[in-house]
Write a structure and sequence with these properties.
The protein has five helices and five strands; from the N terminus they run αβαβαββααβ. It is of the alpha+beta class. Strands 1-2-4-3-5 form a five-stranded mixed β-sheet. The termini are far apart.
């Protein structure tokens, strides 16, 4: 954090619960990177969670969701959330065959209301659109989320 030019504040605890009690932050980027294990925090990918995130975002902000998981296909879940909240989607894969053995491939989904942001050269050169049929998966809410429907 010593090399970060911006103001950095750390809030210990569950991110969603912490954000529910904070005033709007106007983030330009919100990264959700908690889904690569075999036990994912489902409550971070619900309609109610995204309503909390949306309250904290600046205009044209990006929500970046790391969906890499060996057991679950999270893409349709995030697509449904994007549709619900009116976000455009770009997907970026990282897979470097020459990388060190401890570096894994990963997939990030970028959600933004501004097509201009997603069409920027930095993103559009690496990104592709969603290719999933999310209609088969119901929108996740705090009252309903099924991991069985997204098992690989």
């Amino acid at each position: 954090m010593n090399q970060c030019p911006g103001k950095v504040e750390v809030a210990l605890g569950d991110a969603r619960l912490s954000m529910e009690h904070e005033p709007p932050q106007r983030f330009d980027l919100l990264a959700l990177d908690a889904f690569s294990s075999d036990s994912i925090p489902v409550h971070l990918l619900t309609r109610e969670a995204f309503a909390v995130y949306q309250r904290h975002l600046a205009t044209n902000a990006i929500i970046a969701v790391h969906i890499s998981n060996h057991y679950l296909d999270l893409q349709p879940v995030v697509i449904n959330l994007a549709r619900e909240f009116g976000y455009k989607v770009a997907i970026i894969d990282y897979d470097d065959d020459d990388a060190e053995y401890w570096l894994y491939s990963c997939t990030w989904m970028l959600l933004c209301r501004s097509e201009d942001v997603l069409d920027s050269k930095a993103i559009s050169e690496l990104a592709y659109g969603a290719g999933t049929n999310a209609a088969k998966i119901p929108l996740w809410t705090d009252d309903f989320a099924s991991l069985f429907q997204i098992l690989k």
